[in-house]
Every structure is written in structure tokens, then in C-alpha cells.
Write a structure and sequence with these properties.
The structure holds two protein chains of two kinds.
Chain A (H helix, E strand, L loop, with lengths): L3 H19 L1 H37 L9 H21 L14 H28 L16 H6 L4 H5 L3 H13 L2
Helix pairs in contact in A: 1-4, 2-3, 2-4, 2-7, 3-4
Chain B lengths: L4 H35 L6 H10 L6 H26 L6 H22 L1 H4 L1 H4 L4 H9 L12 H17 L8 H6 L1
Helix pairs in contact in B: 1-3, 1-4, 2-3
Classes of the chains: A mainly alpha, B mainly alpha.
Chain lengths: 181, 182
């Protein structure tokens, strides 16, 4: 497997093409749903996980968060929840804005940019949780640390470190813009 | 950084109203704010006087009286915003909308200065010692001395881009199937 940052850039480009095909009014709806997913994960993810641990710990005979598989389990929880929410946001109309993008190159560029932003949010969040839980995919042979210098430099620019204080503001703003456009 | 969230919210919402209702509406809002501030200066609120009369005047501190004045002023500003949003007319051109946005930002700043003075002018409220300043600088995410945090500006730029992108969405045309059905 090559460098992680190359995969990240490749995914952003793939999502830019998805944006061109779908159009940015739909992509903006997906952006809203992704931001809601990030808000849920950052605000309540830890609490849900602790609740599950308290409930299931009794059945399993011990806390799974304190066990040797804590990191893979936590990564699977956060990534599973996030990917499920992203799947829902791309499936059907959900919060899509009604209408069509402007015709011509401007519309295509706006579609591509919004698609790339969604790619940055999705693949960046997946990378963030993999890094936070020490890359549990390494046992699958998909990736093994150490990170390259470029990847280390990119880590502070992933979506969650930048957007976390503003997530609620973004979500409220996008919903307001959709209602009062 | 999260201390700036209320400030950013006020600025963005005010700019949004300015964009939608243009410069005239924002001018009206500035006049309402100025008049409201003159009428309801700290300690001069009729609501505070009434509450003081009802409670015997002993439990309301000077700071609380100032709080009532600010609360009443905030209610008036919010009501004006609501009327402007519902009844105001849209700007005639994109230039009017952009000037309205800038004026809206300025109004938002004035509102924040009234409601959140601690966020905008912390040094006026709490004198910071050299030791406290050093502790602040060591907190994660603190800006380096002499540095400038670009994040709020980037976030603000993203908001403006989103507004422009949403304004550029064309209404959907009915397809041929819909026409035949009608």
C-alpha cells in the first residue's frame, strides 16, 4: 500500500467527479448531513460508547474499552457510525437543495468543488479516526506506520481539528440557508 | 476558540439579514440600536424599574439593572430583525446586497459589543497579569504571540461562498413528463 496521503488526495478527486455527476444542490444536502454526523460523533460519540461499555461490559465479563482490543473496537464504532450516516446522506434526496446548478463551466466547477469538499470531509474524518486509534487497519495489511513527513504535516488540517468548534454553527447555518433561500 | 462561537453566530446571522434585505434595512437597524441604547442606557430601563418596584428594590444589584437594560435592548433588536426578515424588501442589485452584508457585519459587531463585551474587549473587563498571559499562551490552540488566527476568516469566507452558491441555484424546470400530465 502506498502513502496514506496519496489515497486521501485520490479519494477527494473521486468525490469531485461524483459532485460533477450529482450537481452541487444535492452535494450541499450531503454536506449538511455529513456535518450533522460529525457533530453527533464529537458531541455524543464518547458518551454512547461509554454507555455501551457499561451495558455490554456486564454481559461480556469486563469492560471492552479497558481490554487489549480497545482501539480497534473504538475505531470500528466511530467509523461504522460515520460511514452509515454518510451512506444515508448520499442515498436519496435527504436534505438536497431544490433546483439545478447554473449552466456552463461555472456550474461544473461549483459541482466539482462541493464534491471535493465532501470528499475532504469524508476521507479526512476516516483518516482522523484511524490516526486517533493508532491505525487498527494495519493488521489487514492495508497500511503500516510510520507516516511520511507530508502526512504528518497534513494531520492538523483534517476536518475535525479545524471544524470541531464550528460544527454546530455550520449545521444551523446550512439549515437556515436551505429554509430561507 | 469556542468562546468566539456566539460572536461568530451573531456576525453571520446579521450578515445574512444584510445580504437578504440590503442596506436600507441595516440602516434602520442601526437607527433602532442607537435609539434603543440612548433610551435604555445602563440603569435607565423602565422594565428594571418595574421589577425593582415589585421586589422592593433591595435584591437587584447595579449589575443586574444593566443586565435588564441589555436584555430589553436585545429583545427590541431581535424583533426588528424579525420584522425586517419577514416584511423587508430585497435589495435591487447584487451591489446593494453586498453593501448590506458589510453593514450587517458592522451591526452584528455592535450587537456583540453590547451583549458580549467580554469576548470582544476582555482586557477592559479583566486585567490580565503577565503570569496569566503566559498560561493563556500555553493552552492548546492558542495563537503565537504576534500571530494572527486565520480560522474565523476562512470560516466566514466559507459562509459567504455557501450563500452565493445557494443564490446561484436555478429553479428546477418541469420536465416533459410533467407538462403532458398537466
Amino acid at each position: 500500500m502506498g502513502a496514506l496521503e496519496l489515497l486521501w488526495f485520490a479519494l477527494i478527486i473521486v468525490f469531485a467527479f461524483v459532485g460533477i455527476v450529482r450537481g452541487y444542490p444535492k452535494e450541499l444536502g450531503a454536506t449538511t448531513s455529513i456535518l450533522v454526523a460529525l457533530l453527533v460523533l464529537t458531541e455524543w460519540g464518547g458518551k454512547i460508547l461509554l454507555g455501551l461499555d457499561a451495558q455490554l461490559g456486564g454481559l461480556l465479563g469486563g469492560s471492552f474499552l479497558a481490554g487489549p482490543y480497545s482501539n480497534p473496537i473504538q475505531a470500528a464504532f466511530y467509523l461504522g457510525l460515520f460511514i452509515a450516516m454518510v451512506f444515508i446522506s448520499y442515498h436519496g434526496e435527504t436534505l438536497a437543495f431544490r433546483g439545478d446548478p447554473p449552466p456552463g463551466p461555472l456550474g461544473v466547477a461549483m459541482n466539482a468543488v462541493n464534491g471535493a469538499v465532501n470528499g475532504y470531509l469524508i476521507s479526512g474524518t476516516i483518516w482522523y479516526y484511524l490516526d486517533r486509534f493508532d491505525y487498527p487497519i494495519r493488521f489487514l495489511g492495508l497500511f503500516s506506520p510510520p507516516l511520511t513527513n507530508l502526512a504528518k504535516a497534513l494531520l492538523p488540517f483534517l476536518p475535525l481539528p479545524i471544524l470541531e468548534p464550528y460544527l454546530l454553527l455550520f449545521v444551523v447555518f446550512l439549515i437556515l440557508v436551505r429554509v430561507f433561500r | 476558540m469556542s468562546n468566539y462561537l456566539p460572536l461568530a453566530t451573531i456576525l453571520v446571522l446579521s450578515a445574512l439579514v444584510g445580504f437578504r434585505r440590503g442596506v436600507r434595512g441595516q440602516l434602520l437597524l442601526t437607527a433602532v440600536m442607537a435609539g434603543g441604547w440612548l433610551a435604555l442606557g445602563p440603569g435607565g430601563s423602565p422594565l428594571a424599574a418595574e421589577v425593582e418596584k415589585m421586589t422592593g428594590g433591595s435584591i437587584i444589584s447595579a449589575a443586574a439593572r444593566g443586565g435588564y437594560s441589555i436584555f430589553l435592548l436585545l429583545v427590541i433588536i431581535l424583533f426588528t430583525y424579525f420584522l425586517l426578515w419577514r416584511l423587508g424588501s430585497p435589495p435591487e442589485s447584487i451591489r446593494g446586497a453586498l453593501i448590506g452584508t458589510l453593514w450587517g457585519l458592522a451591526n452584528g459587531f455592535l450587537i456583540a459589543l453590547t451583549v458580549l463585551p467580554g469576548t470582544l474587549l476582555p482586557s477592559l473587563l479583566t486585567p490580565i497579569t503577565v503570569g496569566e498571559k503566559a498560561v493563556e499562551a500555553m493552552k492548546p490552540g492558542a495563537t503565537a504571540p504576534g500571530g494572527f488566527n486565520l480560522r474565523p476568516i476562512i470560516i466566514g469566507g466559507a459562509f459567504i461562498l455557501i450563500i452565493l452558491a445557494v443564490r446561484a441555484i436555478h429553479p428546477r424546470r418541469p420536465d416533459l413528463g410533467d407538462l403532458f400530465r398537466e
